[in-house]
Amino acid sequence: MAVTPSCVAQAGRSIIQALGAPQTVSNDIERLNSDCTCVTLDRDALCRAIEKAVADPEFCQALALTHPYLLSAQPVFLTKAHAERMQQIIGAIEAIARLPQYQSAVLGQATEIARYRPGPIGVFMGYDFHLGEDGPMLIEINTNAGGALINAYLLQAQRACCNDMNLAASMRTDLDALCSNFVASFGGEWKRQGRTGPLETIAIVDHAPREQYLYPEFVLFQRLFEKRGMSAIITSPNELAHRDGRLWHGERQIDLVYNRLTDFHLEQPESVALSRAYLAGDVVVTPNPWAHAVYANKSNLVLLSDGDLLRTWGVSDDLVRVLQSGIPRTIAVTPECAAELWSGRDRWFFKPNAGYGGKAAYRGDKITRRVWAELLNTSYVAQRIVTPSTRKISIDGTQHSLKADLRNYTYDGKVQLIAARLYQGQTTNFRTQGGGFAPVFVADGAPAKICR
């Protein structure tokens, strides 16, 4: 994966050149995201659904107080063509990830635990996109992407505020069917590890779970599993024990761990029991260290955006074009490239290979020489900046323009749900008034004047 000094020049190749022609965002959809500022979120309906799910009449009220910027009251609009394009890019990545050459490249540099493959492929993969001038561009992949179930409830609690009937139809969703799809993915993981009996007990595991920002979603998942006939607990990894060929929480045997840890390789002392049970095959863990190494390490984007390398692996030109038009060029930050990257830093976004949640990530035009020196001594990639699309929202009658990214929640390469995150600043942060998770409505287009 070494990169020569010419990598920067190679990375400058135009995406338009790779495509042969530019893609443009639909004018009608742009107009919706710019002009349609009516509120679609029915907060009363959302609270009724959530409170029914958790059997706690105060749950939603408490959520509004503790998470004021978790949910946006207004949606993001997307063309059907862009939704299909994201699925195409995701499918191409999943196809490459199955190649022996690719797996050899990424697992050859991975930790020992990541090279162990028990079978599961990872629930709730998160493929995050910016909608740039040339269409959707993949920014990163996450293996424990949070928010899917919250967004399912959010999407279900929408009311139409636009006159276009096709668009109104796209706003309707079957919450029960979507939740069934989510639960089925856990059953799929159970079977992928060769289990034939019923899946009975699930542990939702994260470090100090009650202190996590998305703890309310853990509760929703717990109730969802219980509703579907399974036992479910929320726990930290240090409360687990490995003995007698099983993983235990107290006196309760754990069949499957829904892993929300950012200890991606189960290396921390509190993860010892979970790590041992996982390597012994005594518990199903999803997502697992193998999935993170194969999909979510940022250095993988160096391979996926290198057309010349992909062709040496026998990847078809059609598939290469899909990836080159859908992934901004990404290169490893090396001493050989350092001078060129620094001089052209305003065109790059720098990310740690094992980063998550925007932590220790820097826009090149914001980086200082001190940080740059530290960065060069760590494992980083440089990714061409793709300016995100924007969504205008109304707050107390005043319009504000927020950045938007698009998260595709997937299982086995198939999109289960698309959600947006609205924010201001460098990365998504859930600290922006009017921002947070937003439902995505897909439409072929709409009249210029649609809002009431």
What's the topology here?
Layout: H1 7-11, H2 15-19, H3 27-35, H4 43-54, H5 59-66, E1 76-79, H6 80-97, H7 100-107, E2 125-132, E3 135-142, H8 148-156, H9 165-170, H10 175-192, E4 201-205, H11 215-227, E5 231-235, E6 241-243, E7 246-249, E8 252-254, E9 256-259, H12 272-279, E10 284-286, H13 289-296, H14 300-304, H15 307-312, H16 317-326, E11 330-332, H17 335-343, E12 348-352, E13 362-363, H18 369-375, E14 380-384, E15 389-395, E16 398-411, E17 414-423, E18 436-443
Parallel strand pairs: 1-18, 4-5, 4-9, 9-10
Antiparallel strand pairs: 2-3, 2-16, 6-7, 7-8, 11-14, 12-13, 12-14, 15-16, 16-17, 17-18
Radius of gyration: 22 Å
Through-space gap between termini: 54 Å
DSSP, total strands:
18
Number of domains: 1
* Total helical elements: 18
* Poorly predicted segments: 1-6, 9-25, 446-452
Q: Globular, elongated, flat, extended or rod-shaped: what is the shape?
A: globular
Description:
This protein is of the alpha+beta class and 452 residues long. It has one domain (7-175, 293-443). Helices cover 36% and strands 22% of the residues. It is built from 18 helices and 18 strands. The protein has helices at 7-11, 15-19, 27-35, 43-54, 59-66, 80-97, 100-107, 148-156, 165-170, 175-192, 215-227, 272-279, 289-296, 300-304, 307-312, 317-326, 335-343, 369-375; strands at residues 76-79, 125-132, 135-142, 201-205, 231-235, 241-243, 246-249, 252-254, 256-259, 284-286, 330-332, 348-352, 362-363, 380-384, 389-395, 398-411, 414-423, 436-443. Strands 1, 2, 3, 15, 16, 17 and 18 form a seven-stranded mixed sheet that branches. Helix 12 links the parallel strand 9 and strand 10 (284-286). The longest helix has 18 residues, at 80-97. It is globular. Mean pLDDT is 88; it is low at 1-6, 9-25 and 446-452.
